Amino acid sequence: MKFNESSLYNIQSSVLGERRSLYELANWKNGIAFKKINFSDTGVPVIKIAELNNGIGGTTAYTQQIFSEDVHLKRGDLLFSWSGNPQTSIDIFRFKLEEGWLNQHIFKITPYEEIVDRDFFYFLMKNLKPYFTQIAINKQTTGLGHVTIADIKKISIVIPSLDLQREIVSYIKPIDDKIELNNEINNNLVA
Q1: Rounded CA gap, 140 and 85, in Å?
Q2: Which of 10, 80, 98, 104 is deepest in the core (most CB within 10 A)?
Q3: 38 touches 63 (CB < 8 A)
């Protein structure tokens, strides 16, 4: 996909709806910069980009401390990793664990459901991945790229009515659920 500055931030659509900034659709909360003093051998996992990509593993850090509720993660929360290798780290995820603490370089996204359906927002973000990747590549330094809040505010997209969003989700989500189930089966076979 080729981009110029205009097409990178002004996303075209054949769907009718209201043009809005991506930022206006949700609350975007960045994680906190944990320090080694916060870590312990047990407790609640600290969710970094590695955990989003690979799950809990030998390098996962834990903490027994309590932090602000807005960085406490629960199953189903939407997370956007906005820093790292543009091709492999920049992406949206559904949080799959019971709980965790949100590390820096990841946004916890809470869609404003009076504007955008939660599942529609997830699929929208998946669809925008090539744009996020290119934005991060354009800002890449020493291998790391970033998609900042300033970028998210600049991205302009067309949002259809809630009824149309829900109709779109009714077609996409069952397929996505089957893909997720197949991935879980594959992971169990490998283990």
Answers
A1: 8
A2: 80
A3: yes
The per-residue pLDDT for range 54-87, each reduced to its tens digit, is: 889 999 999 999 999 999 999 999 999 999 888 8
94-103 pLDDT tens trace: 999 999 999 9
Q: Note whether 66 and 44 are within 8 A (CB).
A: no
Whole-number Å distance between alpha carbons of 169 and 122: 10
CB 125 within 8 A of CB 117: no
Which of 133, 119, 127, 134 is CA-nearest to residue 157? 127
Identify the structural domains of the chain with CATH numbers, from first to last. 18-160 (3.90.220.20)
3-state SS assignment for residue 157: strand
